[in-house]
User: Fold these one by one.
Assistant:
Number 1:
Amino acid sequence: MPTINPNFANEIIKFGAKDFNLCFNCGNCTAICSLSTNDETFPRELIRYSTLGLEDELKSSLKPWLCYYCGECSTHCPRQANPGELMMSLRRWLTAQYDWTGLSGLLYKNLWAYILAMITVLGATIGLSYFSGYS
Ligand code: SF4
Ligand code: SF4
């Protein structure tokens, strides 16, 4: 029996997904995506899982990693539901699920944490190159 997370839509929006709830299941994205087959309704299946909040199915799926973000599905979506962006957001969300430190989720969801991390890495790189005699 699949479990449903009624807050999943709110959660995935924090990872960059936009308007995927506008999907009315027409199938245009599946028709245009080169990764879909007669047996795989890619990416529509993942959109359906996301709108229904079927978190366990999404966690156990490797399909979001197949998408190469060409954007064709989003271009041909009559509802501007941005299925391509949802695929990228699912990848970010999955990365955060795998990461036991919680750091990647923080960086994806919080712009200031991301900027601070970038400044820290830049400072560390400059400092390291200076003390190593490369500057
Ligand atoms: S093309 Fe858009 S509306 Fe149609 S199934 Fe795909 S995401 Fe949903
Ligand atoms: S962005 Fe991904 S899901 Fe959409 S058409 Fe391209 S490969 Fe398929």
Number 2:
Amino acid sequence: MGALRDHGGSNPFGGSPFEDIFDMFFGRERPQGGEPGPERGTDLRVALEVTLAEAATGVERRIAIAREETCPVCFGTGAEKGSAPETCPTCRGAGQVRYSRRTAFGSFSQVSTCPQCGGAAKVIPHPCVECRGSGRARAKREITVKVPAGVEEGTRLRLPGEGEAGMRGGERGDLYVDLAIAPHAIFSRRGRDLHCEVPVSMAQAALGDEIDVPTLEGPVPLAIPPGLQPGATTTVRGKGMPSLRDGRGDLIVHFQVVIPEELTKEEERLLLQFGKLRGEDIKPQKKTLLGKFRSRLS
Ligand SMILES: [Zn+2]
Ligand SMILES: [Zn+2]
């Protein structure tokens, strides 16, 4: 690789060893004459995690990236101030050289990339000190990423022109931001809908009640119907996630009926009385015995 090409290995589609071998056997050649054209800058990829609430409302985030920029000293020419790139003396500006080779299978001629200029057709006698002749310099940049409302795990945002600077006047690459959504303590997401579990007491489930259920915008009042069964769900319309395509999803509340693990004497007496009223003959068990029973089983 010559001076101009030192930092040019960024194009993911060019210059693979396989291509070189292919060229060697099938005689495919670069376009003749002159220097290679502009080369587009490499695309960059970064990962960005946002909260579920940020995914719901959209958010602007500043991210720091390191990327190749056009060298501010030589403005991308790679040559020191007052000097200029010159035609490569080895290939006389062709960018490639032709060898004659004798092998066990006979002799054949082979075209190779010029070893001095690396195919760039020009050499830089006095390279820019700042970028050592590459014409580009690595720099840290802060970039604002606008995350739209309704993004999902794995949503990829494209920021055109925010990738690396091109070579020899080529256009800039793009920046891709791969989004991840941080797990939420209360809500889980299925498509546009949010799901959450809300505990209610035995008495609340039997009698019905007015409670507050959490949403991404804060608690909203909800009436529990009397006779609520364990695992019952209710839908709070429009409190799910916005969608990039459709309208906003719903919040699905899953009720967990909580059976008390400890009872006071008075509570036990009332529950027995309650059972008796419903014609049940209950023989209450001692908590300690039950605990021993359970530990023997496990
Ligand atoms: Zn420079
Ligand atoms: Zn050359």
